[in-house]
Each structure stands twice: as C-alpha cells, then as structure tokens.
Amino acid sequence: MSLMLGYVGLIVLVCCTPVAIAFGILCLDSFCSITAIAAFWCIVLGTATSLVSEYLWARCIILTTPTVATVGLGLGTPLAIAIDVVLGTPGTGNVSSIIGGVLTIIGFIVVQVETAQWGQLYTYISGAED
Known about the structure:
Layout lengths: L1 H25 L9 H28 L2 H8 L2 H12 L7 H18 L2 H12 L4
Helix pairs in contact: 2-3, 3-5, 4-5
C-alpha cells in the first residue's frame, strides 16, 4: 500500500507542480497576493488532508472492493447537501440537489447488493442453467 500511495503522490507532484509554477509566474487567480505563511499552511494542511483521505481510501479498498470504496466516496455529496439544508445555506435544498443526493444514495445501495444475488437474478431472467 505504501508503494501505491507513493506513486499517487509522485503523479500528483509531477502533474500539479507545473500548474502551480505557472500560476505563480503569471499571477493568475490572485496567486501572487498569498503571503508566505498562508502558502505554507495551505501546503501543510492540504498535504495532511490528502494523505489521510488517500490512506483511508486505500484501506477501504483493502477491506471491501475498489468499486464499493470509490462509490462510498460519493456519499460525501448527499451528506454535504443534507448539512447545507440543515444549516440553511442559501441556494441549497432545491429539488434538483435533493434528487441528486437521493440518486447517489440509491446508487450506493445498488452497488452494495451482492454479486451472487445479481447472478441469480440473471439466471432466472435468462433461463440459463449452470
């Protein structure tokens, strides 16, 4: 698992460093107005949260399957929608966001259904016998 996380970090470093350098040189997106201490804390906190999230994702893959772990990450979307609705954030709670959250939860439930049950259903529908 350490090797996989190392490769993920290397790929992110190689792909994102040129973008960060370009933003710094061209002063795009108010990139030049960031103080050194703010940039330091952004890098430290971003690295820490990325490390924790990638470790937990890799751990989920080991404990379940890659599909379930990846779809499980999508459950953050309905959770964020629910929190925004509870907190009363303007622009949330509309019908389309609630439908999107419900569909995400339904998708997670569908992925959780065991493969054997889907295989039995396919066998029953197609009439094929093993």
